[in-house]
Amino acid sequence: MVGILLLTHYGLGESLAECAAHVLSRPLPQLRYLPVYRQDDPDEVLERARAMLREIDTGHGVLVLSDIYGGTPSNIAYRLIEPGRVEAVAGINLPMLVRSLNYSHEALEVVVSKAVTGGLEGVMYMLPPSTNPIG
Asked: Which sequence ranges are marked TM in the entry (predicted)?
């Protein structure tokens, strides 16, 4: 099973992990989160992240999901990448995480693809019922 590490600002990763567990109604043993705070030394966070990767890598790889591309969490995630073993995707949202978890039994490259499509397809402009042709 592919491990998933949420590397995000403050409590975002914890909140997303709790929401995913609620939506999926099952334990998520392959999921971890690591918050990054303003005062954190990025090199120290990197070492904590590497330790977490070792915990959740069962030999099938790990997907690291971060929030804002270019922010400290995504910069740390970038430093963790080992193609084919540790991959990273920025821009996490709940549909991305749920899709990743639902496909975590697949190969790492499949989980990466499902994460990206889940994130993209989970963003919708909602029209009021009077203007929605199917509502």
From this structure: none
Distances (CA, A) of 54 to 51, 98, 113, 123: 5, 22, 23, 32
Strands 86-90 and 31-36 come out as: unpaired
* pLDDT above 90 as % of the chain: 93
Which sequence spans correspond to the domains of the chain? 3-120
Residues 1 and 60 sit within 8 Å (Cβ to Cβ)? yes
Decide if 63 contacts 100 (C-beta within 8 A). yes
Beta bridge partners of 82: 86
Contact 108, 83 (CB under 8 A): no
The CATH class given to the 3-120 domain equals: alpha beta
Tell me which residue has tokens 């963003």: 123
- For residue 52, the one-letter residue type is M
| DSSP letter for each residue of 95-115 | HHHHHHHHTTTS-HHHHHHHH
